[in-house]
């Protein structure tokens, strides 16, 4: 399977990158390491100057808001996955899905980088970051039978048959989600601009390290960019 960024994305976001990582995963719960990461998240974020009142002012979060505005949506309503995650942490609304999901969410928060994951067995063909087609359908995770009709300015991840993530990293599809049956996952680290806090490469390295420490096996990883807009993940 190849992963790529469509050339039209680079016209408006020349610094766009995709950090990607394939791993055989564990489906357990209750990892002491993940529990410790979650327990210390708020404190560690406060140590770098973040709080509930300052999240939106951080340069990396502010630029994601600008990115969402360019997609024609209100960033105060449709928040990047990293902003939504940070707000949950400061509210004390910690999640508990599985060790692997909780782990990559922690890594995402600590690196201020949007991250996601898809079940490899549910993906078809190649994965591309591209502009949606007007009226193209998206089936969001956690929204029952709801269907979203995409707009032409909206950026999506799509495989050969479906949209896998809508508004760059706002919401994953229910048709490629990681669950208790997942054996292998494709992890994504998003970048639309040069980040101030952590680079995609640094976030990818942190993700690989933490996944390994909870029993996952990293098979391959890389970074797609304007210099190399397509990579083979096999």
TrEMBL record:
Record's protein name: B3/B4 tRNA-binding domain-containing protein
InterPro entries in the cross-refs: B3/B4_tRNA-bd, Phe-tRNA_synthase-like_B3/B4
Pfam families: B3_4 (PF03483)
Domain B3/B4 tRNA-binding: 62-216
Lineage, top ranks: Bacteria, Thermotogati, Synergistota, Synergistia, Synergistales
Record SUPFAM superfamilies: PheT/TilS domain
Domain of life (superkingdom): Bacteria
Species in which this protein is naturally found: Synergistes jonesii
GO MF annotation, one: RNA binding
């Amino acid at each position: 399977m190849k992963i790529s960024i469509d050339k039209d994305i680079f016209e408006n976001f020349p610094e766009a990158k995709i950090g990607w990582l394939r791993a055989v995963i564990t489906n357990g719960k209750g990892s002491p390491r993940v529990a410790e990461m979650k327990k210390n998240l708020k404190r560690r974020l406060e140590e770098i100057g973040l709080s509930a009142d300052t999240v939106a002012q951080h340069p990396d979060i502010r630029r994601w808001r600008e990115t969402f505005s360019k997609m024609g949506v209100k960033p105060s309503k449709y928040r990047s996955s990293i902003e939504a995650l940070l707000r949950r942490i400061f509210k004390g609304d910690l999640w508990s899905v599985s060790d692997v999901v909780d782990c990559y969410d922690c890594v995402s928060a600590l690196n201020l980088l949007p991250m996601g994951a898809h079940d490899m067995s549910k993906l078809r063909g190649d994965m591309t970051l591209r502009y949606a087609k007007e009226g193209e359908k998206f089936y969001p995770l956690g929204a029952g039978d709801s269907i979203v009709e995409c707009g032409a300015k909206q950026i999506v991840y799509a495989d050969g048959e479906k949209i896998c993530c809508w508004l760059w990293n706002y919401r994953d599809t229910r048709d490629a989600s990681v669950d208790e049956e997942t054996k292998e996952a494709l992890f994504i680290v998003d970048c639309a601009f040069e980040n101030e806090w952590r680079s995609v490469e640094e976030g990818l390295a942190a993700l690989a390290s933490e996944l390994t420490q909870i029993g996952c096996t990293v098979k391959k990883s890389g970074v797609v960019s304007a210099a190399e807009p397509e990579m083979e993940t096999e």
